[in-house]
Design goal:
The chain has 582 residues and is an alpha/beta fold. It has 20 helices and 21 strands. The longest helix is centred in the last third of the chain and has 21 residues.
Length: 582
């Protein structure tokens, strides 16, 4: 017995030691069991001064398992004993070896393995935080390597990594030399010789194009929707869509005619529209008949000496003959292929249909979309949307998860280091939405889980204005709804204060490596449930490669020492001395 309780203040228990502390090992950070007549409790020795041990109460011990938190407190006559190192592993995680994964080692109990409940760790959202050089990349790689060392994993494991720096190729490529597991690598460059990232445009939805074109106003969504409906329309045989095209063009020309602008401006705008958008029935050379003779549409636009278009009534009657109440209201459903150029054509028709000549505001909002799309089409980034053959969403997901040798990959790594931060964020959101929507579409809910890990998550999971523009933020939707469908987020970041508060609050497990910035520490303390000031103080001083692990996957906040992964990720600092000195 260690000693006798002298006082209890909040969750702190002050114990007068009855043993000679100079004759035993260091007691600091060891766990104790406090037993009275009715209950048992677990506490941690956090300080010893003048023969008084300060014990932080952690939880109740019932049925050989620790329950984090407590309602009652031990009696003053409670018996206090050190917990044997043989019980530490089961104290931290009561799950069996089959249903748990090794995190690392205990630095206080002769390197006893510290395990975490597998379902709770990978079946919930996870956050891994740490300053540069704290060991979070190596810790994450080692965690997955420990997981892959288990012998009973199936092909249904899907770990998706968005790799900001191309670090993890080196850590997991060895899987392709094993018989059971495989690793699939995509890249935005030819840096590692992997497959180049490529997204079929026909699998994108309105919200994806809104992200791609950086929509700022909800009114622009209407234009994108019309553009996609036009794509759905124009990809059909011309005979099926001719009347719709004629109606759209005729309606736009009528808007120009009735705009009240000077005749010369009306003529120029009509010339511009019909030069770019026309059909075999409706173009500048179309014949407009009147009693006695015929004229072309072009001839009817001649301005007379009074600065008027004298055939305006004739043109109006001609255009009205093409109008129809029937519209194409169906968005593409991914059942046919189309290109960004097809979308561009659909957008141009949508701009006409919106009547961009009616107001400067409509023109400005629409023209921004046109300019941004043209900029994309003229950039190297367009190659990421050039897919050679038609493929369904199901087929594309399966291809993403299959190596060139035909093996199912357990880990798929997207190296996006060559992309600028803005475009990388768009790509990550698109893929995350694709996995989420696919998981939601499965008949058996949660039958194909996806664990999406975001390296440098603060670049992507931010408090964006997506909720105002497209109605939701995909990461916040996954954070709130993803668990029921088996889509789980893993946020790896050195700046938690820049992350979405909603997403961070939904992380049920945290691995906290060394953090020192006051803003990050305050933010974590404010947003993360059940975190204490004691934990915050400890993560300020932990050594590289060590972390405080806590959450649903473990019973008690625990300091964990991670072993180095083998192979390691390519995350070492620049070796200045090797470069400066020969």
């Amino acid at each position: 017995m260690l000693g006798k309780i002298e006082k209890i203040i909040d969750n702190k228990i002050y114990v007068k030691l009855t043993i000679d502390i100079n004759s035993v090992q260091s007691l600091l950070n060891l766990y104790v069991l406090l037993q009275d007549n009715n209950s048992a409790y677990v506490g941690e020795i956090i300080n010893i001064e003048d023969g008084i041990a300060l014990i932080s109460l952690v939880g109740e011990y019932k049925n050989n398992s620790l329950i984090y938190g407590f309602i009652k407190k031990p009696a003053f006559n409670a018996k206090i004993d050190l917990i044997s190192p043989n019980y530490i592993s089961s104290l931290v995680c009561s799950s069996s070896e089959t249903n748990s994964v090794i995190l690392g080692l205990s630095p206080f109990y002769d390197n006893v393995n510290i395990r975490a409940d597998l379902n709770a760790l990978f079946g919930s959202h996870l956050a891994i935080f740490g300053s540069t050089g704290s060991g979070k990349s190596c810790g994450f790689a080692k965690l997955l390597q420990n997981l892959l060392a288990k012998q009973n994993l199936s092909e249904k494991m899907n770990i998706i990594i968005f790799d900001a720096y191309g670090e993890y190729y080196n850590a997991f490529n060895y899987l392709n030399n094993t018989q059971k597991y495989a690793f699939k690598a995509y890249s935005t460059s030819a840096r590692f010789g992997e497959e180049t990232l490529s997204i079929p445009p026909w699998l994108l939805e309105v919200e994806d194009f809104a992200l791609l074109l950086e929509v700022k106003h909800r009114s622009q969504l209407t234009i994108i929707e019309k553009a996609l409906r036009n794509v759905n329309l124009f990809k059909r045989p011309e005979e099926e869509v001719l009347k719709y095209k004629n109606s759209i063009i005729a309606n736009a020309i009528l808007d120009i005619l009735l705009s009240g602008r000077p005749a010369s401006q009306i003529r120029d705008q009509i010339f511009s529209a019909l030069s770019k958008f026309n059909t075999r029935d409706l173009n500048l050379e179309s014949t407009i008949s009147q009693p006695g003779y015929n004229r072309t549409f072009r001839q009817c636009l001649i301005i007379d000496d009074n600065n008027k278009i004298n055939a305006i009534e004739l043109i109006t009657e001609f255009l009205q003959s093409f109008l129809t109440d029937e519209v194409c209201s169906t968005l593409p459903d991914g059942s046919f292929a189309y290109t960004l150029e097809d979308f561009s054509d659909g957008l141009e028709f949508a701009l006409i249909d919106e009547g961009i000549w009616k107001s400067e505001k409509i023109f400005d909002d629409a023209n921004i979309l046109r300019v941004r799309l043209n900029s994309l089409l003229n950039s190297d980034n367009r190659t990421f949307f050039e897919y050679p053959v038609y493929i369904s969403k199901k087929g594309y997901i399966e291809k993403l998860l299959t190596t060139l040798q035909g093996k199912k990959a357990q880990i798929v790594n997207f190296s996006i280091d060559s992309l600028d931060e803005r475009f990388a964020k768009i790509i990550v959101k698109m893929y995350s939405k694709l996995f989420f929507s696919y998981a939601k579409s499965l008949e058996s809910r949660g039958s194909m889980p996806f664990n999406i890990f975001l390296e440098e998550a603060h670049r992507y999971v931010q408090n964006d204005n997506d909720n105002e523009t497209i109605g939701y933020n995909i990461f916040e939707r996954i954070a709130k709804e993803g668990r029921k469908y088996g889509v789980l987020l893993g946020l790896i970041s050195q700046r938690p204060c820049e992350l979405s508060e909603t997403c961070l609050s939904q992380c049920n497990n945290l691995l906290l490596f060394k953090l020192t910035h006051p803003s990050d520490l305050d933010y974590v303390l404010k947003v993360v449930p059940n975190i204490t000031h004691e934990i915050i103080e400890r993560i300020k001083t932990v050594k590289p490669g060590y972390c405080i692990a806590f959450g649903n996957a473990i019973n008690i906040p625990t300091l964990v020492k991670f072993e180095m992964p083998n192979p390691t990720p390519n995350s070492d600092n620049c070796k200045i001395s090797n470069i400066w000195f020969e």
